[in-house]
Amino acid sequence: MSTPVYRAGHVAVIGRPNVGKSTLTNALVGAKVSIVSNRPQTTRHRLLGIASFDAGQLVLVDTPGLHRDQGKATASAMHRSMNRAARGALEGVDAALLVVVAGQWDEADEFAYQALHGARLPVVLVVNQVDRQKDKTALLPYLAKVTEGREFAAVHPVSALKRKGLEALVKDVLALCPEQPALYGEDEITDRSQRFLAGEMLREQLMRQLGKELPYATTVEIERFEADGALYRIGAVIWVERDGQKAIVIGKGGERLRDIGAKARQHMERLFGCKVFLETWVRVRQGWSDDEAALRAFGYRD
Ligand SMILES: Nc1nc2c(ncn2[C@@H]2O[C@H](COP(=O)(O)OP(=O)(O)OP(=O)(O)O)[C@@H](O)[C@H]2O)c(=O)[nH]1
Fold first, then answer.
1. CA distance 204 to 131
2. In this structure, is the dihedral angle defined by the CA atoms of residues 265, 266, 268 and 273, taken in order, positive or negative?
3. Which among 124, 208, 235, 280 would be 20 to 30 A from 118, CA to CA?
4. Residue 25 CB–ligand 1 contact under 6 Å
5. Do 161 and 287 reside in the same domain of the chain?
6. Whose CA is nearest to atom 9 of ligand 1?
């Protein structure tokens, strides 16, 4: 009897906001949550989660270079920069999951597809949220339309929320990964990595929601990270350099910071699988980026 093949690889999870990337990642990672972020990661990839199966391991990564700019680039400028950006961002990635919402295909979906295609990476189309489609007969024509003239290594209608269709998806994605041993241990979950991840999730929301307005010298420090039964109490400081920047992050009536915190908390709860009580403060520390001690405190130096 031949030994079963074990495959492992890095898989980019790409898609516009709210399509269900986090839900999908979490569903794939499953109960055996083994999120590791204290290992050095290439700056190009941000680790989302590690999904381990009998037949292999998928290291799910986000590739920040692939997100469409919030600004209004012209189509041609966008196309010019796209392939270059995609190639860089996707270095070391074995396959990509392009997540879309069943029944929808808009400009942002097309942008992501073109970027992935330009990088010559196998793209698996994940048609998510099929459970929300009332008219089940609409799925086939939709699939025919989106696959026409586009190349996908596989197409999988799924419901990340209801965990439907994931087994077949995993099988096809693993098939695109090289035969090699697991890249990470299955039980590397530690408070430290969760603490680190909490900071990353807040940082991600700052980037997403502030875009170009995000002051360059912004950093996140997790001051407090306590597990209180099934509740995590997390206190985070967002450091900026000037009062004006503080006002930008906080927004009118504190609305912006509230939105940023709410979304970050939602992601933390999903990834950690428990309730999170998140408190955030914006503090000003002048010239912190020049200050060696401050950089050390924020984890920028050993
Ligand atoms: N009905 C249904 N809802 C889903 C499914 N997948 C995700 N959702 C919901 O869609 C919303 C967005 O899901 P997320 O996983 O946060 O989406 P995301 O792509 O990670 O969003 P960003 O972080 O903003 O990019 C949440 O309310 C999810 O519960 C699904 O398969 N079915």
1. 28
2. positive
3. 208
4. no
5. no
6. 20
65 is in an annotated binding site: yes
- Same domain assignment for residues 158 and 215: no
CATH, residue 235: 3.30.300.20
Contact 153, 113 (CB under 8 A): no
Whether 208 and 155 map to the same domain: the answer is no
Residue 9 CB–ligand 1 contact under 6 Å: no
pLDDT digits (tens, 9 = 90+) for 4-46: 899 999 999 998 878 888 789 888 886 434 444 444 444 456 6
Give domain status of residue 185, yes or no.
no
Calculate the alpha carbon distances from 252 to 183, 242, 299 in Å: 45, 17, 31
Same domain flag for 25 and 149? yes
Residue 34 corresponds to which tokens in the numbers above?
Answer: 């083994």
Q: 49 labelled as ligand-binding? A: no
Ligand 1: residue of 161, 208, 259, 265 to mutate (most ligand atoms within 8 A of CB) is 161
Q: Is residue 86 part of a domain?
A: yes
Count up the domains in the chain and report the number. 2
In ligand 1, the atom with minimum distance to the C-alpha of 128 is 31
Distance 203 CA to ligand 1 centre (A): 19
Measure 302 CA to ligand 1 centroid, in angstroms: 37
pLDDT per residue over 116-150, tens digit each? 988 889 999 999 999 998 888 999 999 999 999 99
Q: Say what the ipTM of the complex is.
A: 0.97
160 lines ligand 1 (CB under 6 A): yes
User: Measured between alpha carbons, how far is 213 from 55 in angstroms, rounded to an integer?
Assistant: 44
